């Protein structure tokens, strides 16, 4: 059975790469499905993304300014969400070029200091893992969701298997 039917929606819990968002959009029906993206706070970023998605003819993307964990699972516009794509902030040490990843997508330049030392500080890793668990727990409160995809760019078990 397919994860999505023609009129099902997707909720992306964290604005990561705009390419991921566009990919989710083109995998769905542009007329009957919507892709909601949480955490786009800056008005400039919102305008930039809307323009980019419009040029790509991704008409079914709706940017939400709220953090994922502040969104009530029962709000009416999210009742057709069947898939949640959870892309939590992470150490980013599982990508081939973590410095580029952090600068372009992660928005946490403090991790660059950790990279220069060869690993992530224990307290930073713990903070990331706690936030990841909070987001995963919140995602499970969306009772109509049929699939929850949890994806990090980390090699650390503390951000992957231990959280799940």
UniProtKB/TrEMBL annotation:
<dbReference type="InterPro" id="IPR029063">
    <property type="entry name" value="SAM-dependent_MTases_sf"/>
</dbReference>
<dbReference type="InterPro" id="IPR049560">
    <property type="entry name" value="MeTrfase_RsmB-F_NOP2_cat"/>
</dbReference>
<dbReference type="Pfam" id="PF01189">
    <property type="entry name" value="Methyltr_RsmB-F"/>
</dbReference>
<dbReference type="GO" id="GO:0003723">
    <property type="term" value="F:RNA binding"/>
</dbReference>
<feature type="binding site">
    <location>
        <position position="67"/>
    </location>
    <ligand>
        <name>S-adenosyl-L-methionine</name>
    </ligand>
</feature>
<keyword id="KW-0489">Methyltransferase</keyword>
<dbReference type="InterPro" id="IPR001678">
    <property type="entry name" value="MeTrfase_RsmB-F_NOP2_dom"/>
</dbReference>
<dbReference type="GO" id="GO:0008168">
    <property type="term" value="F:methyltransferase activity"/>
</dbReference>
<keyword id="KW-0694">RNA-binding</keyword>
<keyword id="KW-0808">Transferase</keyword>
<feature type="domain" description="SAM-dependent MTase RsmB/NOP-type">
    <location>
        <begin position="1"/>
        <end position="164"/>
    </location>
</feature>
<dbReference type="InterPro" id="IPR042620">
    <property type="entry name" value="NSUN7"/>
</dbReference>
<feature type="active site" description="Nucleophile">
    <location>
        <position position="153"/>
    </location>
</feature>
<comment type="similarity">
    <text>Belongs to the class I-like SAM-binding methyltransferase superfamily. RsmB/NOP family.</text>
</comment>
<keyword id="KW-0949">S-adenosyl-L-methionine</keyword>
<dbReference type="GO" id="GO:0032259">
    <property type="term" value="P:methylation"/>
</dbReference>
<protein>
    <recommendedName>
        <fullName>SAM-dependent MTase RsmB/NOP-type domain-containing protein</fullName>
    </recommendedName>
</protein>
């Amino acid at each position: 059975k397919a994860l999505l039917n023609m009129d099902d929606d997707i909720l992306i819990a964290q604005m990561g790469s705009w390419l991921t968002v566009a990919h989710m959009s083109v995998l769905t029906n542009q007329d009957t499905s919507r892709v909601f993206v949480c955490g786009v706070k800056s008005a400039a970023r919102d305008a930039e993304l809307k323009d980019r998605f419009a040029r790509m003819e991704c008409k079914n993307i709706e940017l939400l300014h709220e953090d994922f964990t502040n969104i009530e699972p029962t709000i009416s516009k999210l009742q057709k969400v069947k898939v949640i794509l959870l892309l939590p902030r992470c150490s980013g040490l599982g990508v081939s070029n973590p410095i580029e990843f952090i600068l372009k997508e992660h928005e946490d330049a403090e991790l660059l200091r950790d990279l220069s030392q060869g690993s992530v500080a224990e307290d930073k890793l713990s903070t990331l893992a706690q936030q990841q668990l909070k987001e995963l727990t919140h995602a499970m409160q969306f009772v109509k969701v049929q699939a929850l995809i949890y994806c990090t760019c980390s090699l650390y078990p503390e951000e992957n298997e231990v959280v799940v």
